[in-house]
Input
Amino acid sequence: MFNLTKKKNGLLFGDIAVNKGLATQKEIDEALVIQKEYEKRNRIHKEIGAILTEKGILTPKDVKKILEEQRSHRGLVAWFTAFFNLTH
Output
């Protein structure tokens, strides 16, 4: 529904959570709306993992696993890009 996060060199946090069966797409979409409203009101970015944990959807352990997968994927993309001399 919403794509309010910026995709860098890797998978989005929400995509990983859904692919691992830790959250539904609807829960991710709702968390993204909360994230955007929070940032607009408070002028502070709140991570989607924190929002999903506060809502009881993810555990801190789940968030750690998702972040590790994000980092791993970014590293793979960086290696592939450097190895084949590609630019973003």
Observations:
- The helical segments are 13-19, 25-42, 48-54, 60-83.
- The chain has a mean pLDDT of 83.
- Residues 13-81 form one domain.
- The radius of gyration is 14 Å.
